[in-house]
Amino acid sequence: MRGVTEADLPELVRVDREAFPDDPYPYFVLRQLYDVHGDRLLVLDDGERLHGYVLFPTVSEGREGRIMSLGVTRDQRGRGHGRRLMLEVLRRMRAEELREVSLTVEPTNAAAIMLYRSIGFTSEDSVRKNYFGPGEDRLVMTLIL
Fold it and tell me: How far is CA 84 from the centre of its chain?
């Protein structure tokens, strides 16, 4: 696990496409996210390829964190990589004395919801309809740090 570099962008795009084949970020969006939040983007690197990433900017004058995206390639799922990325992000946020962190997740993504709940995230169990546009519902989850 390490911070992302500009040279990682093509691999980051590949990972995102593998992790989210139905709705990956376009290259230009990942480029801009790197430009704006590159210091808040960790990748899983085995020395040959990237296998996952997490993007975790802060908001509200640096007092609250967001998990904007957590992706692990399909061939690497179920090996604890998502948990490792999340625990490292939470460790960093606690060290920065953030108050809380939130994220959104597709309501049908049971594996992700179970991961987030096992780490301590909670939700009001109500789905926010059309969060990302028509038909793009999300479950909002938060963790008090």
Answer: 12
Give pTM, 2 decimals.
0.92
* Domains assigned to the chain: 2-144 (3.40.630.30)
Sequence-ordered alpha helix ranges (H) in the chain = 9-19, 27-37, 81-95, 110-119
How far is the C-alpha of 69 from the C-alpha of 6, rounded, in Å?
A: 18
3-state secondary structure of 73: coil
Q: Which two tokens stand for residue 55?
A: 């993007």
Q: What is the per-residue pLDDT across 32-59, written as a single tens digit (0 to 9) for each?
A: 999 999 999 999 999 999 999 999 999 8
Residue 62 phi, psi dihedral angles, 5° rounding: 75, 15
Contact 33, 41 (CB under 8 A): yes
How many whole angstroms separate alpha carbon 2 and alpha carbon 64? Answer: 22
Backbone angles phi, psi at 51, to 5 degrees: -125, -5
Identity at 60, one-letter amino acid code: S
